[in-house]
Amino acid sequence: MARGHRTQIKRERNANKDTRPSAKLSYARVSVQKACFVLDAIRGKDVTTALAILEYNPRYASSLIKKLLESAIANAENNNGMNKDNLYVAQCYANKGPTMKRVHPRAQGRAYRIEKRMSHITLVLDEK
């Protein structure tokens, strides 16, 4: 159990907060495995290179991650006053979200379950 006044606890928790610009996409209709293929391609790259990779990547997840990267760049410029030329992708990962369960009818009255997976994608930028 934490000690101290409630405002003091909040102040300490916010002092340890990560101040790097980031963007998060929750409930993206793409599985974690498919999103990670695209995220692995841009991890550690500078922002302009990452945008170029995402522009010409044929996977569906790349269009979602491109919009997310543009949002993180806008957050960095507007909220933190950073220059776009100095930014790079420090962290990017996809966590498992909820799964929609659907039923597909099969032969002889059977039913197969179809799982439509979702993911939460997070992108964190940093300056060089």
Automatic annotation (TrEMBL):
Can you supply one Gene Ontology CC term for this chain's record? cytosolic large ribosomal subunit
Q: Which GO terms describe its molecular function?
A: rRNA binding; structural constituent of ribosome
Kindly list the biological process annotations in GO that this record carries.
translation
Q: Basic and acidic residues compositional bias: what residue ranges?
A: 9-21
What Gene3D superfamilies does this protein map onto?
Ribosomal protein L22/L17
Give the domain of life. Bacteria
Any Pfam family matching the protein: Ribosomal_L22
Look up keyword Ribosomal protein and say if it applies: yes
Name the keywords, alphabetized: Ribonucleoprotein, Ribosomal protein, RNA-binding, rRNA-binding
Q: Where is this region: Disordered?
A: 1-21
Q: What does this protein do?
A: The globular domain of the protein is located near the polypeptide exit tunnel on the outside of the subunit, while an extended beta-hairpin is found that lines the wall of the exit tunnel in the center of the 70S ribosome. This protein binds specifically to 23S rRNA; its binding is stimulated by other ribosomal proteins, e.g. L4, L17, and L20. It is important during the early stages of 50S assembly. It makes multiple contacts with different domains of the 23S rRNA in the assembled 50S subunit and ribosome.
Subunit (UniProt) = Part of the 50S ribosomal subunit.
Q: Which family does it belong to?
A: Belongs to the universal ribosomal protein uL22 family.
The protein here is known as Large ribosomal subunit protein uL22
The species this protein belongs to is: Eisenbergiella massiliensis
